[in-house]
Amino acid sequence: MGPNLLVNYGEAVAMILFGIGFSNLLLQKNLIKKIIGFNIMDTAIYLFLAEKGYIEGRIAPIVVDNITSVDKYINPVPSGLVLTGIVVSVSGTALMLSLTIRLYRRYHTLDLDEISTMLKREDRS
Amino acid sequence: MTFIENFPFFSILLSLGSGVLTSIMNKKAARIWNTLIMLVIGSLSFVLLVYLLGTGESFTFMMGHFPAPWGNEIRAGALEAGMALFFVMIMFLSLKGGEQHLDEEIEESKINLYYIMINLLLSSLLALIYTNDLFTAYVFVEINTIAACGLIMIRQNGRTIEAATRYMIMAQLGSGLLLMGLCILYDITGHLLMSNIKESVALVYAEGTYNIPLIASIAMICVGLAIKSALYPFHTWLPNAYGNATVSSAAILSSLVSKGYIFLLIKIFYRVVGFDIIVDSKIINILFVFGLLGMIMGSVNAIQENDIRRMIAFSSVAQIGYIYMGFGLGTTMGMVASVFHILSHASSKSLLFIAASGLTDVSGHSKKFEKLTGSGFRNPIAGLAFSIGACSMVGLPLFSGFISKLLFAQAAVQLSLSKLLPTMICLAISTVLNAIYFMKTVLRIYTPVKGNREKIEMPNKGKYTFTLVCMIVINMILGCCSQPIVDWIESGLAIFG
């Protein structure tokens, strides 16, 4: 495990970032901080994919100067996955931000627990 | 390749395309168009099911121009086609049953937006059922989540927005884990198509070099999908979402959305990792424990509830516990029981939600139990439908719930004592708890109230009655003629691998 960890330090960093983002999304009370956590989590996955797709000493998979040899280019599939993932996470972020705006306009707070308490009070009255 | 093999692709594309089309229609056109599309997709799935039952085999359909290891694929067997047909039927009935409420609760100009969400949800469910590519599955999981979020928040009030936010947070946690798991699996195997991954996973597992990352990735996928389908400790968003959304949304969310993720998990068990490796990896034991916990805790929470919609929502938590418990048994019998329970729960839960909406309508739109007293007399058909749904949930013979409990018990008795005992004890306790809260409700809606006994006429009663009768019939068919359905599930799972 030891030597592999040093070689794959990029993946290790990605996993740590994933953990940070995940726990922020789960544990933060503030909705904006939650969304930031969500973005860190998703970006960490893209970092992981980019690290996995990169091969030392090769170039981006765009054919230039008519070089068609496979050995010249990095693996294009993870890059494609990252692009798809970015689209997905952008729409998720947009939806969560719009929900946050609506909640803030109604309850003038970003704290989800506080909003729940207010809702319970509304129910009783 | 015969023409029929295009049908899964047609179904997905039709619903996806009509999602776009509905955005420029007005309310009435959108509704008619949506009904038409559902009927078309239902009949396509039916033809496909008959065809596949005839051939007894599955087929793969190449999407685009790249062959197997690179391109994208659709795969259909009898199980997938039948599931698609069943999902479309339940969605159609849930929509028709809640139409009245849609008109009352949602702004006129937003109703066509509701049908966009419905179409997107349907296309993503169909894609989850048919796809043979893991990353496509992930993308459609996200589409499913976003569409479901829209279904919750289309009725605008503080509660639904809060519920949608909580739902979104939990769902994003789940899809983060799912995506990370998929990426690690892709790195280990180098493939994204399910059949190719399965070959590589078998090789890697036999060599034993990457066992820890492999198990970790499978665990991440399992936990991610468990969070999204509201397995017990992750169910906190569920009661508010189901309790406050408009009734069609609640019925569709509880009976279809969570089932889509569970069906994807079954596909991953059988087609990506291989059932033997899953059983060998002990991950299912964790699902087993949480399934049992969910069965008990969901019912306990439901008993304490004083709101009929939230009670039904908590009952969903218990029923999803049953499904995961079936996975945890680790045998094909247990899997068959789980798949049957998916059908049984979907049919009874949508019936309960639609019936409960009829009962609350005649009780001054209050969901509290005190107001519901005697509502079974005021709205006889809703009362009858609710009682049948309740009997099915408790597991009385003639209804679908009985068969799924029987199948779970049959699957459990073949196992060693360490799994047999907890399963049986929890099944018994959960059945008793189910009986407590459902029979309590049935007794309450049939308790006569002095004085005020007149029937309250609802507008559009014909459609509502028709949907309830259809749902009751589906439930009774599942309960009375279960053998052909169980055979179909068994043969479908057999050609899954």
Count of domains of chain A: 1
Extract low-pLDDT stretches of chain A. none
Largest chain-chain contact?
A-B, 36 and 28 residues
- Gap between N and C termini of chain A: 60 Å
Q: Care to count the β-strands of chain B?
A: 2
Number of strands of chain A: 0
Strand content of chain B: under 5%
Structural class of chain B: mainly alpha
Number of helical elements of chain A: 5
Helix fraction bin of chain B = over 70%
Oligomer class: heterodimer
Distance between the termini of chain B: 22 Å
Write a concise keyword list for the protein shown above:
heterodimer; A: 125 residues; mainly alpha; Helix Hairpins; 74% helix; elongated; B: 497 residues; two-stranded antiparallel sheet; 22 helices
Structure description:
By secondary structure, chain A is an all-alpha fold. Chain A has one domain (2-124): Helix Hairpins. In chain A, 74% of the residues lie in helices and 0% in strands. Chain A contains 5 helices and no strands. Chain A has helices spanning 2-7, 9-27, 31-53, 76-107, 112-124. In chain A, helix 3 runs antiparallel to helix 4. The longest helix of chain A is centred in the C-terminal third of the chain and has 32 residues, at 76-107. By secondary structure, chain B is an all-alpha fold. Chain B has a domain at 283-497. Chain B is 78% helix and 2% strand. Chain B is built from 22 helices and 2 strands. Chain B has a two-stranded antiparallel ribbon with strand order 1-2. In chain B, a hairpin with an 8-residue loop joins strand 1 and strand 2 (72-76). At the A-B interface, helix 2, helix 3, helix 4 and helix 5 of A face helix 6 and helix 7 of B.
